[in-house]
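Duplicate of #3305? Posting structure anyway:
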């Protein structure tokens, strides 16, 4: 698939990435909501190349994952499993957001009752997520 580019709010961090699929997900877990200020809306990528890496902060949010952000403006840029070169990049930071489809939601059982998405998607509870990813059982994403 062709690549896409993106950047943080202030432009201090730019990236290019290869696309895995043209789908956006939503994670409603407590960590993502605190980190992104609402549900985290990622797209799956690989082969990510960053420019302005000196402005890229990384926070290890669990035994198996880290989250990336701009140290200057605070933009939430990505979630990445430590055992993978795949990145879940924030859809809101993409330069071109056309052609994307809202496809799935995870940790739907942790979603607060004050918002809902109109689109119909695949949905997974936290238990569903850990059943599909047994190496992560017992911790947050």
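Output from current build:
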């Amino acid at each position: 698939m062709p690549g896409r580019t993106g950047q943080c709010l202030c432009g201090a961090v730019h990236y290019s990435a290869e696309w895995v699929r043209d789908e956006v997900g939503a994670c409603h877990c407590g960590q993502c909501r605190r980190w992104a200020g609402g549900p985290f809306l990622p797209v799956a990528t690989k082969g990510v190349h960053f420019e302005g890496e000196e402005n890229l902060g990384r926070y290890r949010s669990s035994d198996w994952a880290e989250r990336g952000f701009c140290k200057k403006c605070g933009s939430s840029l990505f979630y990445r499993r430590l055992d993978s070169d795949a990145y879940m990049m924030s859809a809101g930071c993409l330069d071109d957001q056309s052609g994307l489809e809202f496809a799935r939601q995870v940790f739907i059982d942790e979603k607060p009752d004050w918002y809902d998405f109109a689109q119909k998607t695949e949905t997974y509870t936290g238990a569903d997520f850990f059943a599909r990813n047994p190496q992560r059982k017992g911790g947050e994403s």
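Confirmed duplicate; merging threads. The chain is about 10% helix and 40% strand. The chain has a mean pLDDT of 92.
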